[in-house]
From TrEMBL:
<keyword id="KW-0436">Ligase</keyword>
<protein>
    <submittedName>
        <fullName>AMP-binding protein</fullName>
    </submittedName>
</protein>
<dbReference type="Pfam" id="PF13193">
    <property type="entry name" value="AMP-binding_C"/>
</dbReference>
<dbReference type="GO" id="GO:0031956">
    <property type="term" value="F:medium-chain fatty acid-CoA ligase activity"/>
</dbReference>
<dbReference type="InterPro" id="IPR000873">
    <property type="entry name" value="AMP-dep_synth/lig_dom"/>
</dbReference>
<dbReference type="Pfam" id="PF00501">
    <property type="entry name" value="AMP-binding"/>
</dbReference>
<feature type="domain" description="AMP-dependent synthetase/ligase">
    <location>
        <begin position="20"/>
        <end position="180"/>
    </location>
</feature>
<dbReference type="InterPro" id="IPR045851">
    <property type="entry name" value="AMP-bd_C_sf"/>
</dbReference>
<dbReference type="InterPro" id="IPR025110">
    <property type="entry name" value="AMP-bd_C"/>
</dbReference>
<dbReference type="GO" id="GO:0006631">
    <property type="term" value="P:fatty acid metabolic process"/>
</dbReference>
<dbReference type="InterPro" id="IPR042099">
    <property type="entry name" value="ANL_N_sf"/>
</dbReference>
<feature type="domain" description="AMP-binding enzyme C-terminal">
    <location>
        <begin position="268"/>
        <end position="333"/>
    </location>
</feature>
<comment type="similarity">
    <text>Belongs to the ATP-dependent AMP-binding enzyme family.</text>
</comment>
Length: 349
């Protein structure tokens, strides 16, 4: 581990062990400017212990810490290790955190990854699969998992969970099983987490980890019951096209399904662009080249799938194939606003 990163990790652990009671973290900036948030020791302890109970983690278990410790997901991996008595291996974040580990003699009980890390492990170093299969639990968060990745990770026999949470909730407050016979599209709240929605159908959360304050999100959900919900998208990304409200994340999911069936792993963003007739027209941005589009991509298959599931108004009226990658935040999430601003501030060929 590089010296500066090692020092930063050690300093946090020393602060925690010394009994520090207040910590300042920063949001990821995926939905706006990163902002500082103060969390208490009690909030972080409550979150760590709840994760431990939910996943059956015990003192002496081993964990691989490979998320950025400058943000809540990485910091909470350290807190879980310290609070639960886990033996931690801490490495600086990289696209393949298992690259330097020998699958014949390395075993971890627990880790948390972002989707890119898991995809890289499975596609570039499948020989590392035994390391994943020895774990009690694998968390995947920070960004949505694509349909293609969810299909690929079925080779993992250990439980793999998508996480839902944010800095304000001190990491995850709900999990969704991604593999095996109990895989689901529905998130289940952890014990003691109270859920509800506002008049926009946006989720709000209260728990010991929020200090029992009500945290109101902009995440549009289908609240199934008191502890289960399906994540639909964000209220601040909704497109109004011809008077019809369209949740772009749902369109992106359908497109990703079609791409995955064609063996394509492009990322896609759906945005609303000004339109004189419709108000906003649905526009799809693809992280792919023009050559790839003409060689392998059938837009009519995409249009048909969207039309069948969401209706005609949700079908993109325009598709743009980028020669550059999407703009990302420091934690690897797609920065929707910055990507859109970059794309439409210069001509695309």
């Amino acid at each position: 581990m590089p010296h500066a990163y090692q020092t930063e990790a050690q300093e946090f652990c020393q602060s925690w062990l010394s009994g520090q009671t207040l910590f300042t973290l920063h949001t990821s900036g995926s939905t706006g400017t990163p902002k500082p948030i103060q969390l208490t020791r009690a909030q972080m302890q409550a979150s760590a212990r709840l994760t431990g109970r939910t996943l059956g983690l015990q003192a002496g278990d081993t964990s691989l810490v490979c998320l950025n410790i400058r943000y809540v997901a990485g910091i909470m991996m350290l807190v879980r290790g310290l609070e639960l008595g886990l033996s931690m291996t801490i490495i600086e974040p990289s696209s393949n955190p298992l690259a330097d580990f020998d699958p014949t003699n390395v075993a971890f009980d627990f880790t948390a990854l972002v989707p890119l890390q898991l995809q890289t492990i499975l596609t570039q170093t499948p020989e590392k699969l035994p390391i994943l299969n020895r774990m009690k639990a694998i968390l995947v968060g920070g960004a949505a998992t694509s349909p293609a990745l969810e299909e690929a990770l079925q080779v993992i026999t250990s439980p793999v969970y998508a996480t839902y949470g944010m800095t304000e909730t001190v990491s995850h407050i709900a999990l969704r099983r991604l593999n095996g016979p109990t895989a689901t599209t529905v998130f289940t709240a952890l014990e003691g987490v109270e859920l509800g929605t506002d008049d926009r159908e946006c989720l709000h959360i209260r728990s010991a980890a929020t200090n029992f304050d009500l945290i109101q999100t902009n995440d549009v959900v289908e609240l199934i019951d008191a502890t289960h919900f399906r994540l639909l998208g964000r209220a601040d990304t909704i497109i109004n096209s011809g008077g019809v409200k369209i949740q772009p994340e749902q369109v992106e999911q359908i497109i990703s399904n079609v791409l995955g069936q064609a063996g394509l792993f492009w990322r896609v963003l759906v945005v609303g662009r000004p339109d004189a007739l419709l108000g906003q027209r649905v526009t799809a941005l693809y992280e792919a080249t023009e050559f790839a589009r003409t060689a392998f991509f059938d837009e009519e298959n995409v249009a048909q799938a969207i039309r069948q599931q969401l209706g005609t108004y949700a079908v993109p009226k325009e598709s743009i194939f980028l020669r550059t990658t999407f703009v990302e935040t420091a934690t690897g999430k797609i920065d929707r606003k910055a990507t859109e601003a970059t794309v439409f501030s210069r001509p695309q060929s």
